[in-house]
Specification:
Helix content: under 10%
Radius of gyration: 13 Å
Order of helices and strands: EEEEEEEEEEE
Number of strands: 11
Number of helices: 0
Strand content: over 45%
Distance between the termini: 39 Å
Shape: globular
Largest sheet: 7 strands, mixed
Length: 122
C-alpha cells in the first residue's frame, strides 16, 4: 500500500533535458527525507541526490553536482529531479527512496520505487 512511483524518464539526445518525478501513494512524504539513486547495467547503485523532509537541506554526488537539481512539493506529495543538460554517462535506471535519515547511502532508506529509465544517446 505504501508506494513510490517514478516517472519522467525517456530516450533523449545528449544535451536534452528531463525532469524526473517521484510521487507517493498510500502515505505522505512530509516526514521523510528523499533520495534519488541510479543504476546503470552492470554497475553498482549510486546515490545521486537527497533532500530533507522540509526541503531545507540538499546534497549531491560529485558526479552530478552543479548539473542536477532536487526539489520537493510536499503539498503534492511529490519530489523532482531536474536534469537540464543530459550526458551519455547519465544513462541509468533512476530510483527514488524515502527514509528518516538524509544520506546518499542506500541502506538507510525504507521505501523504494520501481525506477524510471533514462537513456542518453545520439
Amino acid at each position: 500500500q505504501l508506494q513510490l512511483v517514478e516517472s519522467g524518464g525517456g530516450l533523449v539526445q545528449p544535451g536534452g533535458s528531463l525532469t524526473l518525478v517521484c510521487a507517493a501513494s498510500g502515505f505522505t512524504l512530509d516526514y521523510y527525507a528523499i533520495g534519488w539513486f541510479r543504476q546503470a547495467p552492470g554497475k553498482e547503485r549510486e546515490g545521486v541526490s537527497c533532500i530533507s523532509s522540509g526541503g531545507g537541506s540538499t546534497y549531491y554526488a560529485d558526479s552530478v553536482k552543479g548539473r542536477f537539481t532536487i526539489s520537493r512539493d510536499n503539498a503534492r506529495n511529490t519530489v523532482y529531479l531536474q536534469i537540464p543538460t543530459l550526458k551519455p554517462e547519465d544513462t541509468a535506471v533512476y530510483y527514488c527512496a524515502a527514509g528518516i535519515v538524509i544520506t546518499l547511502a542506500a541502506r538507510p532508506y525504507d521505501y523504494w520505487g520501481q525506477g524510471t529509465q533514462v537513456t542518453v544517446s545520439s
